Amino acid sequence: MSADKRIEAITARIVERSKPHRQPYLDRVRAAASKGVHRGVLSCGNLAHGFAVCSPAEKDALAGDRVPNLGIITSYNDMLSAHQPFETYPALIREAAREAGGVAQVAGGVPAMCDGVTQGQPGMELSLFSRDLIAMAAGVGLSHNMFDSVVYLGVCDKIVPGLTIAALTFGHLPAVFIPAGPMTSGLPNDEKARVRQLYAEGKAGRAELLEAESKSYHGPGTCTFYGTANSNQMLMEIMGFHMPGASFINPGTPLRDALTKEAAKRALAITAQGNEFTPAGEMIDERSIVNGVVGLHATGGSTNHTLHLLAMARAAGIVLTWKDISDLSDVVPLLARVYPNGLADVNHFHAAGGMGFLIQELLKGGMLHDDVRTVYGQGLQAYTIDPRLGENGAVHREPAPKVSHDPKVLANIETPFQPTGGLKMLTGNIGSAVIKISAVKPERHVIEAPAKVFHDQQELNVAFKNGELTGDFIAVVRFQGPKSNGMPELHKLTTVLGILQDRGQKVALLTDGRMSGASGKVPAAIHVTPEAVDNGPIGRIRNGDTIRLDATHGTIEVLVDAAEFSARPQAAADLSGNEFGMGRELFAPFRAIAGPADHGASVLFA
């Protein structure tokens, strides 16, 4: 099954652009793979340390390189709801490895922070940089050179992108990602948002707000809205890192455990010792990356992936750009309505047909490259399934439904919710930015209004409480880029701007910071680059300047005489308050070398 010519053309230009980087990367991967089972190069002292706690039988097997050894990289902690289920996974994986005739060891742990806990707090300024730190931490675990294949246990915002960068850096090793699944449905997301707005307006108290939040985030698993965490799971499946159907099965269920054991056995089956060697760096190519972007558009996924996908691709020597993402958005229809792009949550999405139905429809429309390698084998057609628990306790897969079980949540390719994906690039005299419009009403795609300038989100929130945010305006929140303060999500602005919009004001946001996978109904031009601290034009905007945000034509302009605008002095901000506290001082070197947003805001690929 061939892809649409427009998809093929964008893929071809990515291939051409990537050649100077991709081929040297593949050469390194193949050189590392050619060395064979790497425990063979370890001295007796090295190896003795590496299997000191193994059983006698395992030591004997590993000493002779007769069986594959499976490394486990885990992001377990019991504070994150999404990662708490991983506590029991190593035991399941070791059991599966023994059944498959192999050995499994936890190679290392990586940090996993929760953006939900740190929103609006100092710790959020560590969040984006934790992605690259996670890649480094996984690299430390794998540097012991003990493993033939790796399983990665991760779910949430920066964890999966960081683990993907690690998997591709160690691209000579097969890599299977094992998710934990979403929590069961709690208080509906729109009701949670309603209570948040009431609280912001002083019409509800803290007790009512905490009750609503606790009923929404109530147990093990990912948050159920379609933010970055669940976008991650979609990406891992559509890019072929997951077993088919693995993404959205709830934690603590027999099917979840069966999928985990199956993934571990598959990771052992695709090592260099078998007949299906599938090194991650060879498996993921330009087509896989394009498939990921297509999935992001088709589901109305997280804006954070306009950063993460660039960094993930670059780890494999692939140069993806915002223009590629924007052009793919013009081709790919929106097939899913999941909050904040609709009222459903990810459990409703799965019940409507889930990933199997989505991939089936995208293949039918020529939106995906089917001829890709995956951890399950060749081609995405194998992912057009509905996972079930078989009578013997193993995973059983049935064909995906031909018709959506809920057309309000998941659409057929012939009747999409909208003809485009809704993520667009904006360019103009302010620089470049990204906007997500899949949840923004068409009449709000163009906003022309005077600027109200702030240097952090707290300033804006104070102005709101003081009744100063009257009339139409575009909020300019600057000095929020990676070099300024680590590029935190400005999620606290969603409620305030939403209230003003509901009151009838025309409002929008322009920022060199991030919003999040939960950004919704308010037009938001985010990730502005160059950022203010890098002499970006956003630093020359003044209160009252008219700004035109045009998501229809993909432009963002400050309507000021060009000569005057260019001659203006750059604004300054006191960022000393962002340098210390909650670990921020430890990340000063990251802020100093961080690359721009349109290169992934990375310290690894600046």
From TrEMBL:
Cofactor: [4Fe-4S] cluster
Residue ranges of domain Dihydroxy-acid/6-phosphogluconate dehydratase N-terminal in the record: 68-381
InterPro entries the record matches: 6-phosphgluc_deHydtase (IPR004786), Dihydro-acid_dehy_C (IPR042096), DiOHA_6PGluconate_deHydtase_CS (IPR020558), ILV_EDD_C (IPR056740), ILV_EDD_N (IPR000581), IlvD/EDD_N (IPR037237)
Cofactor binding remark: Binds 1 [4Fe-4S] cluster.
Any one GO biological process: Entner-Doudoroff pathway through 6-phosphogluconate
Record keyword Ligase present: no
Pfam families: ILV_EDD_C, ILVD_EDD_N
This protein's pathway: Carbohydrate metabolism; Entner-Doudoroff pathway
PROSITE patterns linked to this entry: ILVD_EDD_1 (PS00886), ILVD_EDD_2 (PS00887)
GO cellular component, one term: cytosol
Positions contributing to [4Fe-4S] cluster binding: C156, C223
Catalytic activity entry: 6-phospho-D-gluconate = 2-dehydro-3-deoxy-6-phospho-D-gluconate + H2O
Enzyme Commission number, as recorded: 4.2.1.12
Entry's Gene Ontology molecular function annotations: 4 iron, 4 sulfur cluster binding; metal ion binding; phosphogluconate dehydratase activity
Top-level enzyme category: lyase
Record's keyword terms, sorted: 4Fe-4S, Carbohydrate metabolism, Gluconate utilization, Iron, Iron-sulfur, Lyase, Metal-binding
Dihydroxy-acid/6-phosphogluconate dehydratase C-terminal domain mapped to chain residues: 408-601
Family to which the UniProt record says this protein belongs: Belongs to the IlvD/Edd family.
Role noted for this protein: Catalyzes the dehydration of 6-phospho-D-gluconate to 2-dehydro-3-deoxy-6-phospho-D-gluconate.
HAMAP family: Edd (MF_02094)
PANTHER family: D-XYLONATE DEHYDRATASE, PHOSPHOGLUCONATE DEHYDRATASE
UniProt name for this protein: Phosphogluconate dehydratase
Native organism: Shinella zoogloeoides (Crabtreella saccharophila)
